[in-house]
Amino acid sequence: MPHPAHAPAPPSYRDTAPPSHLLGPAPDPSMSWSASAGTPGRERPVVTFGEPEGYDERGRGLSLAGRVAPRTVAAAACMVLGLGLIGGAVTGGWIVDDGGDASAATSFSSASGLWHNVPVDELFPRTVQGTGAGPGGADRTWTRIAVAPAGGCSGAFDPLLRKALAPVGCQRLIRATYTDATQSYVTTVGLLFTKADSAGMAALAKRFTDERLDRRTDLLPLPYAEKNTAAERFGPHQRGSWTISVLTDAPVVAYAVSGWADGRTVDTPQPAADAEASGATTAAAQAGLGNEAEGLADRIERRLRQNIAGPATEKPS
Predict the structure, then answer these.
(1) What is the rounded distance in angstroms from the CA atom of residue 141 to the CA atom of residue 145?
(2) Which pLDDT belongs to residue 259?
(3) Which segments in the chain show pLDDT lower than 50?
(4) How many whole angstroms separate alpha carbon 248 and alpha carbon 108?
(5) Helical H runs in 173-312?
(6) pTM of the predicted model, to two decimals?
């Protein structure tokens, strides 16, 4: 069985983009993801108050201005001050809310181009450390052995899963396959970049949660197997466990599917969440295939979020 070190060099996603006449000008490869004074108002008009007359004990006219005017002026001043404070508070609230919404929208939009603008090694590191990711909190180390060219979603999902994902569309799918340190297990991890907006992703996430679509054994991702690697026998019948995550802050569906490297078949795959549960006795659970899928998917998703926020700070080991 070939050693991961002899795996073919991964392709560059920049070289697998569709023809330029379809996508328009290519983005600059060097780009990194990091992704006023007010106008014086008019003077307020001068408001004057009439001075009503009263009478003294002898019936003579008496001006009440001396007693009423100070109170009236004070009340008017309080009213003007109060309105000013309320208006300022409301305006301040609008400014803060608008800024937050704009920032979230920019981040969401920027994420859609990561598949093309970020190097393969940033999204799928050659080596991934899984501290505490194995059964019982054991450490894991995964080595990348194959990278699929960026492409569409055809042949990547079981038919019903492809149908469930159809509402958000498929802009690009990128995948890589890893093996553990002993080369006993293989795991394909994928990032599906959709065409949906934030509302569309939120709707899909809600449906997956409400209908538990991520637990159905007829809605699974397919593995990516490459010849002359530890994954060359990793086919549909070798899938042991999987996990799917629909993101709502980026147009991305992240997933991972794991199995044995020796080609043994699995009658009934088990969701990673169930395989990791205490007391699980299935073959996938006992072997830790749920931990393989969940642990690797979690760390690749972290890499994705780091690149959405800005240049990745964690380098592959």
Answers:
(1) 13
(2) 97
(3) 1-7, 15-68, 73, 80-81, 83-98, 312-317
(4) 9
(5) 198-211, 272-275, 283-287, 289-309
(6) 0.68
